[in-house]
Amino acid sequence: MAQLKLNLVQSARLKVLIGDCAEVLTTLENEIIQCCVTSPPYWGLRDYDHPDQIGAEPSPELYVKSLVTVFRKVREKLRSDGTLWLNVGDGYARNGGTGKCGPNAMVGNTKKLIQKRNCKVPDVWGLKDRDLMGLPWRVAFALQEDGWILRSKITWIKKTAMPESVKNRPTNATEEIFLFAKSPSYYYNSKAVRQETGANLRNYWILGADPNSHGHPAAFPGELARRCILLGSREGDVVLDPFGGSGTTGIVANDLNRHAILIELNPEYANYAIEHSLHV
Ligand SMILES: C[S@@+](CC[C@H](N)C(=O)[O-])C[C@H]1O[C@@H](n2cnc3c(N)ncnc32)[C@H](O)[C@@H]1O
Fold it and tell me: Range of 98's domain?
């Protein structure tokens, strides 16, 4: 049975450290992680109700800086041939209005930071009302500048897109997943996931949401984690998710005979991840 011990919950192969990943990462040994598969909160979207949460920065520029700081620490923890698989979402700069305006028009029933901000266009990057902010690429370029080698941009095509009420642009149905390497000679098992024809995997993945989203408003599909983990690690390796949420990365990693370390601010999500990992 899972037990909450101070700031750590764990099962045999899954360790969930509860706290701010920027701090918790410094407590891990260097160069023990083979691959990091993660999706940080998107800027200005959901409110995870915690003073240390990422995504609630007053400007998207500070959000990019926060992520650079976190992933610099992740890089220290990666083995020299390690990789980072990063899913980041975009958003719109909007002026005035209510919660129905950007960064993303519809966010379901979760609390919206955008309502609190009252949708003011951030005074940065020359953004204008209704501008798509291009956050995934801004984060990617910032990480590149900080020392990461950007190796691929994978487009996640969503089988079931979030409905949007917009009539003046196409509905968003894709997100980016970036593959970064710590060094030019990194581990990537191209045989682990192939096209149906047997050809090398393409950089667009058509994936549906999991039927059970693990009790988390922003869980990514298990198949997304599965592909990244298979391509980026071997059995017995350690996989990290510093924004663990409901534990998709950890649960899938364990299922694939990898160890996993998750970091998560919210103890409820952390406990959910452990409970869930014990029952799959
Ligand atoms: C997009 S969700 C991740 C969902 C996860 N991939 C899954 O499938 O369940 C981002 C998570 O990061 C957590 N979070 C936000 N700021 C954090 C921080 N500074 N340190 C650790 N976790 C944080 C939030 O509580 C949220 O659960």
Answer: 20-149+195-220
Ligand 1 pocket, residue 39 CB under 6 Å:
yes
Which alpha helices (DSSP H) does 31-98 contain, by range? Answer: 60-77
Name the more confident of 6 and 15.
Answer: 15
Residue closest via CA to ligand 1's atom 16 equals 53
- Residue 200 domain-assigned (yes or no): yes
Helix 267-278 with 248-255: angle, nearest 10 deg: 20
249, part of any domain: no
Cα distance between residue 53 and residue 40, in whole Å: 10
User: Which residue is closest in CA terms to ligand 1's atom 12?
Assistant: 243
45-49, 90-94, 227-231: which has the highest mean pLDDT?
Answer: 227-231
- pTM for the complete prediction? 0.92
- 272 vs 24, more confident: 24
Per the prediction, the chain carries an average pLDDT of 88
CA of residue 51 to ligand 1 center, whole Å: 13
pLDDT of residue 48: 82
What is the count of structural domains for the chain?
1
Is 115 contained in some domain?
yes
Instruction: Give the residue-averaged pLDDT of 176-204.
Output: 98
What's the Cα-to-Cα distance from 59 to each of 46, 55, 254, rounded to whole Å?
A: 15, 9, 37
For residues 57 and 66, the answer to whether their CB atoms sit within 8 Å is yes
Closest approach atom of ligand 1 to CA 269: 27
Residue 41 CA, ligand 1 centroid: distance in Å:
6
Do 160 and 106 form a contact (C-beta atoms < 8 A)? no
Task: Kindly state if the Cβ of 260 falls inside 6 Å of ligand 1.
Answer: no
Mutate to test the pocket of ligand 1, among 43, 243, 252, 268 (most ligand atoms within 8 A of CB): 243
Whether 245 is covered by a domain: the verdict is no
Q: Position of tokens 């520029």? A: 61
**Residue-wise pLDDT tens digits, 161-174:** 888 888 999 999 99
